[in-house]
Write a structure and sequence with these properties.
The complex is a heterotrimer of chains A (777), B (146) and C (292). With 777 residues, chain A is an alpha+beta fold. Chain A is built from 20 helices and 29 strands. Helices cover 34% and strands 26% of the residues of chain C. Chain C is globular, with a radius of gyration of 19 Å. The chains are: A alpha+beta (777), B alpha+beta (146), C alpha+beta (292).
Chain lengths: 777, 146, 292
């Protein structure tokens, strides 16, 4: 029994796109229910303040207003925002749905207004009078640790959320043996995910049927259902969560938010459908942020360029409250600090602190971009300190392909890789040697280009359940309908990744049919089996494997049925061209005939049940570890500090590929977000906790004109962890590209004596660095 | 936000001082002042509509004079809030004789929050200065009118 | 992001608009594209009770030659200015500047009159308007008066326009022979506004010496201004790189630069010089190759 790979590995246009580009998709705000009320939140302008009183009288009597509620009204009915991460001795910084007694960050909701439309609700929200007693705010994570800092959660003595360390190998010995110890501090700045569609939730309660339907723009419909049910005390089996089209998540919708539980509760409490749509300003203020670490890195090396040890101290700014995974993210950084190098000894110490800012959580890459950035920047800083070429320094410390699976001192096992091949291909594609010659020639003319290399490894396919806070498996049901059409019901929740297409490609190949008769269903807890969701570059490697296994189960069943009809051994049958045939092709029946037989159930082989429906819950044995090499060229205008990207080469290895076009799309998008972090993006709070980059007019994200042509290529090292041999690619660009760009910027500025520059490399920062270095000379 | 600057008011120092501590006169000169009433000694409740071209916002709040050294030093604490956000600050006015009138040095530090901080930071400081300058030129008008 | 309620009126003529403006006074705002007004309204930083849309008035969108001037109707979009063959031939600085405003959507809806009347300190047009000594025509119930560009910008978001007046037209002189110009802008990466924008216009004499230099600067301070000391330093000069560099150093010497999260006051001041030098160098080069 076999099938040809006709669609897997081929670029196919996305099945998702026709509806989206014709404006026929449905996002939350496209949905409306009769009698629906609008929900608007009253938010604190203060980052830290005691609430003396809230006067809702004027708002309650405003036109169209159904209800105005504060924490007093709901605190017994809705639980705290859940956090799935548990770290030993961690402080509890749970976020209430509406602020209780005090606010701890700007934008925290203090009251909710329900009115007949969004306009009246907004008018009424402005009439809610809150009397605040402002308290001193703490914004800087280092200041938050000092003795005289204001304490944000006053049941505790200080703002340190937890301290945690990870060590492998003999670090003392490594540092004692070293010829050189190089130190560098680097800041991984706070970012705002900026999904194109802000969040939104709609809910309807049917009291007769006792069912609660919640529509939400989320990456995790099932986890959301479980958590909402727990928060508002509804029986889980009566709650249905539906995710319509989701306009981007990048981790910002891998969460359970106060508004989601609140809207569901209000629909039940007030007996009317409710909708809340987030404004862009709210999205900036109170949807999760990313990154925000200060990393102190020390690397011990021998003169010949052998790395002996690495010590990293991470100061992670968690913000005021925990969201779903907040405390966990810095630990992912710790796990990946070995990079793609053989480092015999590593110690990582994390100090996580609470500040009067929005929570940080999983933003595209989630802890791994921070790791890759600190390792890859360090490789350049150390190479420079040793007077070695950064490429050769990297190559010297790579494990060889035959050393895989390779276990790092941080305790994880890389599945498979060939770092040398990836690096060599990228060097060749970029014309690295020629670039270096060009750089030297241009410097003589007073032009400064920089060449940056990053060889990264990342961790994908999250992941074995043992390593995950809430399960790391994924589910899929495949149902072949009597017509022969196929429904793949996946527990993954794609929101732009393209699995409606790639899963259909897998289905078509396994069953020997065409992708157009394979439909992928996701994002409705009443239709698909319980799933974990889409994040951590897991949908294809984990979710796709569940799909594959369910398909194989049905193929086996169909082979048994067809064999029975044709008088052939099932093992001798092949699936292809819409037929099931004997290997010799002498005997053949249409695919639909075997399907029909399964439902007609008149001549089934003994022991075979009627119907064609198979479900798999796939539990992976390990993560996967994609890798690659990115090379970036920038030119710096030394008069203004302006950095222009002039060339970009990306070689990524994400194992086997289902749809190369989707992979390229992911790589392009990831690189663009990395460009954002490297050159533009910065969530700036003032010292009183006001978010100054609070709108898209002040928070810069890259635009098409800021980007060079991206030359992409792949090496293919299949993963042994799953039968498809896939690894995952959703975050690779964001992980590999940021250090390549910053290495290029530092390389361009090297003639001035600049050794390191923190992100983002904004004009004024570059200009100041050049000026400071010139003055120091 | 820190603000400092000077304004020349073409009127004698005593008269400028008098204006600064007389609620009715103050109310006339404060740009967009809709209400200013005493709630205690050296304490006032104010309602202002601040507008700069198309941009406007209503603020209500309080002013508390914490130090008075007639006719030269006036220290105050201002708290205001409105739909666009809040502003809490301390201000110091120092009056000295100058050719042709009185020089008023103002310096203050304000915490600004909410919408105005997030979207208006670019224009905040210039706007504040503009409102202050408006105040002093109206004070001058008030004091020089016959 | 939801404005307070307001009444929308769309007059069909300037006269009708003036009557509405007179009737509603302070409570009315004119809508002339809306890229500044509507965001302010959505944030409730502007809360007019009446919005008078000038977009339905016919005959306010044109670029034509009249009486030795090029006349531009107030409701002419940035896109129309950027692509005007007449302006490219006779006053290219205005077209070049218009092409740098915002993005395609902004240029397709934003208007020259709306932008000038709003007088955002980081808008592009003011620099060019100053550098070409444009005239601004303002119409009220008492007729139309002319305001010179140099007098027009008063302060932050404030112009010489009086209550009850509508900016109806901008008039510019065609460039004399041996004239070159350039608008060079450092974009604020998020909003696209000018961190620094410099519009330079240079007219040379037959010997290639600067007969007339004008430099308009936007983005740097609370209002756009003419960098007169730069202009003076170049008068009668042939503009070697050294002379340009020297002259451009004065670009922000008499102003108090703005500061925000994108650029400190010091950086703005320094960049005013760099951008001014670049704009001047390009303007001189174009003047030298212009038809004499």
């Amino acid at each position: 029994m076999a099938s040809a790979t006709r669609y897997i590995g081929k670029s196919m246009k996305r099945k998702e796109d026709p509806k989206l580009i014709q404006g026929m998709g449905h996002y939350i705000d496209d949905l409306n229910l009769p009698g629906m009320q609008a929900v608007v939140l009253v938010r604190s302008p203060h980052a830290h303040a005691r609430i003396r009183s809230i006067d809702t009288a004027a708002a309650r009597s405003a036109p169209g207003v159904l209800a105005v509620l504060t924490a007093e009204d709901i605190r017994d009915s809705i639980g705290m925002v859940p956090c799935a991460a548990q770290i030993p001795d961690m402080k509890n910084a749970a976020r209430p749905v509406l602020a209780i007694d005090k606010v701890r960050m700007a934008g925290e909701a203090v009251a909710v207004v329900v009115a007949s439309d969004r306009f009246l609700a907004t008018d009424a929200a402005n009439l809610v009078e809150v009397d605040y007693e402002p308290l001193p705010a703490v914004v800087d994570p280092e200041k938050a640790m000092s003795k005289d800092s204001p304490v944000i959660h006053e049941q505790y003595k200080d703002n340190v959320a937890y301290r945690w360390a990870l060590e492998g190998g003999d670090l003392k010995k490594a540092f004692a043996k070293a010829d050189k110890i190089v130190r560098q501090r680097m800041v991984n700045q706070r970012l705002i995910p900026v999904a194109m569609e802000p969040r939104g939730t709609m809910a309807e309660y049917l009291p007769g049927e006792k069912t609660l339907k919640v529509w939400s723009s989320t990456q995790i419909p099932h986890l959301l259902r479980t958590q909402i049910a727990a928060m508002i005390g509804a029986p889980e089996h009566s709650v249905q969560v539906i995710t319509p089209e989701v306009g981007g998540g990048f981790g910002s919708k891998l969460n359970v938010y106060p508004e989601e539980a609140l809207v569901a509760h209000l629909a039940m409490r007030l007996g009317k459908p409710m909708k809340w749509i987030e404004t862009r300003r709210e999205n900036f203020l109170v949807a999760i942020h990313g990154r925000d670490q200060i990393d102190d890195v020390e690397m011990a090396v021998k003169r010949d360029g052998t790395i002996l040890g690495l010590k990293v101290r991470i100061l992670a700014d968690l913000g005021a409250y925990y969201q779903l995974l907040t405390p966990l993210i810095p630990t992912l950084t710790a796990l990946m600090t070995s990079g793609c190098y053989k480092i015999p000894a590593i110690r990582v110490e994390i100090t996580a602190v609470l500040t009067n800012k929005m929570a940080t959580d999983a933003y595209r890459g989630a802890g791994r971009p921070e790791a890759t950035y600190l390792v890859e920047r360090m490789m350049d800083v150390v190479a420079k300190a040793l007077g070695k070429d950064p490429v050769e320094f990297r190559r010297k410390n790579f494990p060889k392909p035959k050393e895989f699976p390779y276990t790092t001192p941080t305790g994880i096992t890389y599945d498979s890789a060939d770092y040398h091949r990836s690096l060599d291909l990228a060097l060749k594609m970029s014309g690295y040697k020629k670039l270096r010659a060009e750089q030297a020639a241009l410097r003589k003319k007073g032009r400064y280009i920089g060449i940056g290399v990053s060889t990264y490894v990342e961790i994908c396919a999250m992941g074995p359940s043992s390593a995950m806070p809430a399960g790391g498996w994924e589910s899929a049901t495949v149902r072949i309908e009597p017509s022969g059409n196929v429904n793949i019901l996946t527990g993954s929740s794609p929101h732009g990744q393209g699995q409606e297409t790639s899963f259909a490609q897998i289905g078509a190949d396994i069953l020997g049919i065409t992708p157009d008769v394979v439909n992928v269903v996701h994002g409705d807890t009443a239709r698909v089996p319980y799933g974990i969701g889409t994040f951590g570059s897991r949908a294809t490697a984990v979710g796709g494997t569940a799909v594959y296994k369910s398909l194989v189960k049905l193929r086996e069943k169909l082979a048994a049925i067809a064999g029975h009809i044709m008088g052939e051994k099932p093992a001798n049958l092949v699936f292809g061209d819409g037929r099931i045939s004997s290997k010799s092709k002498k005997k053949s029946i249409p695919f639909g005939e075997a399907v029909g037989a399964a439902y007609a159930a008149k001549s089934l082989p003994p022991g075979i049940e009627p119907g064609l429906d198979a479900t798999t819950f796939f539990e992976p044995t390990n993560f996967t570890f994609p890798f690659g090499t990115h090379i970036c060229v920038v030119e710096v205008d030394v008069e203004t500090g302006d950095v222009k990207l002039t060339k970009y080469v990306a070689v990524d290895d994400c194992g086997n590929v289902i749809n190369p076009m989707l992979v390229e799309g992911q790589v392009h998008g990831g690189i663009v977000q990395a460009v954002g972090q490297a050159l533009f993006e910065d969530a700036v709070y003032d010292d009183q906790g006001q978010l100054l980059s609070g709108e898209l007019t002040d928070y810069a994200i890259p635009r098409a004109g800021d980007l060079p042509w991206m030359e992409t290529a792949r090496t293919v090292t299949p993963s042994p962890v799953n039968p498809l041999g896939v690894k995952g690619v959703g975050e690779a660009g964001t992980i590999g590209a940021t250090p390549a760009i910053m290495n290029a910027v530092a390389d361009a500025l090297a003639p001035f004596g600049v050794t390191h520059l923190d992100m983002p490399a904004k004009r004024e920062r570059v200009w100041s660095a050049i000026r400071a270095a010139r003055r120091a000379k | 936000m820190k603000i400092q600057g000077t304004a020349l008011v073409r009127a004698p120092r005593e008269r400028v001082w008098e204006l600064l501590v007389t609620p009715e006169l103050l109310a006339r000169c404060l740009p967009g002042c809709e209400k200013l009433e005493a709630t205690g000694p050296d304490r006032y409740k104010v309602a202002l509509k601040i507008s700069v071209a198309a941009v406007s916002g209503k603020f209500s709040g309080s002013v508390e004079i914490s130090e008075k050294q007639p006719p030269s030093v006036l220290r105050m604490r201002v708290e205001g809030k409105g739909a666009p956000g809040f502003m809490n600050g301390n201000g110091l006015l120092s009056l000295s004789d100058a050719t042709g009138g009185t020089e008023v040095r103002y310096e203050g530090e304000a915490q600004v929050g909410g919408l105005v901080a997030a979207v208006g930071s670019r224009l905040l400081e210039v706007t504040a200065k503009k409102v202050i300058q408006q105040f002093f030129s109206r004070a001058e008008e008030e004091l020089t009118k016959t | 992001m939801i404005p307070e309620s307001f009444e929308y009126v769309a007059p069909k003529s300037v006269e009708e608009a003036l009557r509405l403006l007179e009737r509603h006074g302070d409570e009315a705002k004119l809508l002339a594209g809306g890229h500044s007004l509507l965001p302010l309204m959505k944030l409730r930083l502007a809360t007019p009770r009446f919005v008078i849309d000038l977009g339905r008035i016919g005959g306010l969108s044109y670029i034509r030659e009249f009486g030795g001037q090029i006349r531009i109707g107030a409701m002419t979009t940035h896109a129309a200015v950027a692509s005007s063959a007449l302006l490219h031939e006779k006053c290219p600085l205005l077209a070049e500047t218009a092409a740098e405003i915002g993005d395609v959507q902004v240029r397709n809806r934003g208007t020259i009159g709306g932008s000038l009347a709003h007088a955002d300190p980081a808008a592009d047009y003011p620099a060019a308007i100053l550098a070409i000594d444009a005239e601004i025509h303002a119409t009220s119930g008492r007729g139309t008066r002319t305001i010179s560009a140099g007098d027009f910008f008063v302060d932050l978001l404030a112009t010489q326009l009086r209550p009850g007046e509508i900016l109806t037209e901008v008039a510019v002189q065609p460039f004399p022979p041996r004239t070159g110009s350039a608008y060079v802008k450092m974009h604020q990466p998020a909003s696209g506004y000018a961190v620094v924008g410099v519009a330079a216009r240079v007219t040379l004499d037959a010997a290639g010496k600067a007969l007339n230099v004008s430099v308009g600067v936007t983005g740097v301070s609370a209002k756009a201004y003419r960098a007169t000391s730069v202009e003076k330093a170049l008068h009668g000069e042939k503009a070697s790189p050294q002379i340009l560099e020297e002259a451009a150093r004065h670009a922000a010497e008499d102003v108090e630069p703005l500061a925000d999260i994108h650029a400190s006051a010091e950086y703005r001041r320094e960049m005013a010089s760099v951008i001014a030098r670049r704009a001047l160098a390009r303007a001189f080069e174009r003047a030298r190759s212009a038809k004499g």
